[in-house]
Amino acid sequence: MIPSQYYLVLSAAVFCIGLFGILTRRNALIFLMSVELMLNAANINFVAFSIQNGNLTGQVFSLFTIALAAAEVAVGIGIILVLYRNFNDVDVTTATTMRW
């Protein structure tokens, strides 16, 4: 059996890649993919601790997180389409005129 530390290191690496993508990119699609990476890192943690403790609670939470991620992508794609339709670009810094 693989030790749970390996799962935690993998999860930390995936989370850091997602955080790097959010902090450095301006493309809205990259934002969505980076948020998905961060949610998947949380899912890896849920499943790893679920296996370690011997119950299914973490796996159930992981399923809820996957459903949340699917809803987030649906809303995010709609926002990106409106952004592209109004500004002909998916760069999030060009949408400053949409602020109050």
From TrEMBL:
Q: Which InterPro entries match?
A: NADH_UbQ_OxRdtase_chain4L/K, NUOK/Mnh_C1-like
A GO molecular-function annotation: oxidoreductase activity, acting on NAD(P)H
GO cellular component terms listed in the entry, alphabetical order: NADH dehydrogenase complex
Q: What is its EC number?
A: 1.6.5.11
Q: Which Pfam families would you find in this protein's record?
A: Oxidored_q2 (PF00420)
Write down the Gene3D superfamilies for this protein, in alphabetical order. 1.10.287.3510
Name the residues that span the membrane: 6-23, 30-51, 63-84
Single Gene Ontology BP annotation: ATP synthesis coupled electron transport
Compartments (UniProt record): Membrane
UniProt keyword annotations, A-Z: Membrane, Oxidoreductase, Transmembrane, Transmembrane helix, Transport
HAMAP family listed in its UniProt record: NDH1_NuoK (MF_01456)
Q: Which family does it belong to?
A: Belongs to the complex I subunit 4L family.
**Name assigned to this protein:** NADH-quinone oxidoreductase subunit NuoK
Species annotation: Halocatena pleomorpha
